[in-house]
């Protein structure tokens, strides 16, 4: 059924694009086999009107013209259905290719491929390859979380969602009702920024801690959506990118290179350990836990306690 309709729509689009003069319903019916097989005029008229509306919804501009005899005809002028030439520099093409790779990993490969094909048809130069890396290092943004695709669509459509979320300090997940704003990638991890309805405040959720399925709940947001810059700053803050203090840690020699890159001071202690002073902001405890036994927090005391609580939660399963 779906294939037959797609073929019928394609034939109608080709007829409307290929004609130099408006074609009447009668002429279109005689030109398309599926319309000839319609049982009666009423069936054909309903089928034709649905197909015409579907093509317009897909973006085809169909003109309706009435001749001197009062007969209505239809055509799709090529000049009205042609996009202007599209030009992308190397940086723009690289960004487009990176986005397409994210879509492919998120099980949206068909949409990504279709979008790039449309850009080619619209004038993207053949010598510009959006998938090609434009430097010695190729950036990659992995997407492994099953929650990415439904949350991306919920952000786009402004649909509230419900999901089970396991905090790093909790042994069991809890239910969250969220109005999703945007997805951001920090340190190789994806985060969702949005409005937590239960807590009445903005929150950031790491996608890898979402358990089970993401479900849609109701329509419409109850809280205003901030601009993109504000959302990104919120994600950066909750991901530990904004620091207002310093922390003192011990780090096993030869490990924790991301921590060493952040350190403002490093002192060798001997016996296979170094002492580092690193910026301390929200989310640092979650980051330190990832290094396991290679890190020991010395101060401040609240950071040490947060890391211990997270490790205990992990031990409890």
Describe the protein:
- The structure is a single chain.
- With 317 residues, this protein is an alpha+beta fold.
- Helices cover 39% and strands 25% of the residues.
- It has a five-stranded antiparallel β-sheet. Strands 10-11-9-12 form a four-stranded antiparallel β-sheet. A three-stranded antiparallel β-sheet has the order 1-3-2.
- Strand 6 (189-196) and strand 7 (201-206) form a beta hairpin.
- Helix 1 (2-18) crosses helix 4 and helix 5 runs antiparallel to helix 6 (109-121).
- The radius of gyration is 28 Å and the shape is elongated.
- The model has no long low-confidence stretch (mean pLDDT 80).
Radius of gyration from the CA trace?
Answer: 28 Å
Number of helices: 11
Strand order of the largest sheet: 7-6-5-4-8
The main β sheet shows up as:
5 strands, antiparallel
Query: Which secondary-structure class do the elements indicate?
Result: alpha+beta
Percent of residues in helices comes to 25-40%
E-strand count? 12
Secondary-structure element series: HEHHHEEHHHEEEEEHEHEEHEH
Residue stretches low in confidence (pLDDT < 50, at least 5 long) are none
Note the gap between the termini: 49 Å
What would the average pLDDT be, to the nearest integer? 80
Strand content: 15-25%
Indicate the overall shape.
Answer: elongated
């Amino acid at each position: 059924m779906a294939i037959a309709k797609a073929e019928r729509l394609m034939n109608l689009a080709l007829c409307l694009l290929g004609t130099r003069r408006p074609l009447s319903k009668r002429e279109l019916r005689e030109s398309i086999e599926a319309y000839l097989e319609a049982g009666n005029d009423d069936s054909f008229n309903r089928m034709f009107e649905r197909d015409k509306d579907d093509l317009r919804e897909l973006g085809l501009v169909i003109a309706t013209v009435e001749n001197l005899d009062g007969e209505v005809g239809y055509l799709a002028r090529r000049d009205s259905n042609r996009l202007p030439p599209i030009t992308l520099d190397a940086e723009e093409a690289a960004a487009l290719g990176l986005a397409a790779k994210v879509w492919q990993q998120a099980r949206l490969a068909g949409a990504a491929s279709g979008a790039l094909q449309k850009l080619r048809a619209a004038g993207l130069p053949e010598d510009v390859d959006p998938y090609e890396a434009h430097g010695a290092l190729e950036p990659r943004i992995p997407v492994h979380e099953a929650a990415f695709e439904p949350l991306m669509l919920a952000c786009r459509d402004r649909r509230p969602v419900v999901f089970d979320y396991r905090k790093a300090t909790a042994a069991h997940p809890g239910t969250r009702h969220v109005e999703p704003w945007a997805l951001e990638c920090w340190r190789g991890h994806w985060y969702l920024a949005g409005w937590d309805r239960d807590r009445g405040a903005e929150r950031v959720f790491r996608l890898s801690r979402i358990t089970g399925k993401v479900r849609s709940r109701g329509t419409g947001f109850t809280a205003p959506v901030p601009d993109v810059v504000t959302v990104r700053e919120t994600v950066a803050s909750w991901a530990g990118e904004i620091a207002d203090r310093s922390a003192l840690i011990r780090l096993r020699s030869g490990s924790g290179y991301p921590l060493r890159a952040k350190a403002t001071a490093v002192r060798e202690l001997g016996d296979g350990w170094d002492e580092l002073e690193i910026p301390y902001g929200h989310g640092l405890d979650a980051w330190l836990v990832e290094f396991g036994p290679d890190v020991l927090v010395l101060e401040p005391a609240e950071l040490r306690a947060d890391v211990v609580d997270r490790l205990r939660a992990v031990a409890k399963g």
